[in-house]
Amino acid sequence: MRYLYFFFAALTLAAQPNPNRLTIGWLVREDIFAGLIDNDPVRFAKGLETLNAVARHYPEGTVFAWRYTAEAVQAVWAHEAKDNVSFNRHYALALTYLDQSRKASSGENATIPEIFEGATMAVLAERMPEALRRGSWERAYKAYAKLDELQSSQVDRFPMHMKGESLSGLAATAYRTGREAEMLKTLERIQAGMPKTPYATVAKKWADEPEARAKVKFVCISCHEPNRLGNRVERSLAVE
User: Fold this and answer.
1) Is the dihedral of CA 135, 138, 144, 148 positive or negative?
2) pLDDT digits (tens, 9 = 90+) for 77-91
3) In the predicted structure, residue 235 carries a pLDDT above the cut 50
4) Which candidate, 143, 208, 210, places its Cα nearest to that of 170?
5) Are 35 and 13 in contact (CB under 8 A)?
6) The whole model's pTM is what?
7) Helix (H, G, I), strand (E, B), or coil: what is residue 124?
8) How far lies 133's CA from each of 122, 126, 129, 157, 214, in Å?
9) Closest by CA position to 32, among listed 78, 165, 24, 85
10) Which ranges of the chain would DSSP assign to H, the alpha helix?
11) What does the angle CA 7 – CA 12 – CA 16 come to, to the nearest 5 degrees?
């Protein structure tokens, strides 16, 4: 019942003319990421249901980007279930939505599709069919490299999570694509620019212990606390 209250409250807020109360990311992020990171089909289904319910209230570029991630998750699940037909369908839809997101995103507040492409493939690339694995890691690296280029003048002012995920994603995908010099440079940037953070701790371990790089997680290591949406909805409802 508590979830239903928050769900319908979120839908009500999303329909109101003030879009600053809850972005679509706040509404769907944690549930869709539960599928992406934790393989939780129940929470993933809730996230997809919410996305479908509120999509018309938000910019197409952002909606398409979330649909890309959702389809990519379902593609991997289909591959692991040995359902090639479903894999091909979901993967084709994922690429279509990513392309549509790029075409629909424009203006100062446009979605940056590389954020979704990089994070999604950094988590899923190793679970893709073997024939697509190397290409998936390459796509993830190029997305993070483009993101780093776009944000170069601002990244040092970002909150820890945003800065850490951008740079850790770049380091992790550089490692996976054989770009060791760039990986080491990025690890130095993280340690110098983000001291006393979880990202700096992992960066030091990666730098000092090469054998740890294949074992120690470096992407999506913060900001996924329980009931994140519920807490945010409560704060929004309290603001008049």
Assistant:
1) negative
2) 999 999 999 999 999
3) no
4) 143
5) no
6) 0.81
7) helix
8) 11, 6, 6, 34, 16
9) 24
10) 2-15, 24-38, 41-54, 60-80, 84-104, 113-124, 130-150, 160-176, 180-193, 198-208, 228-238
11) 145
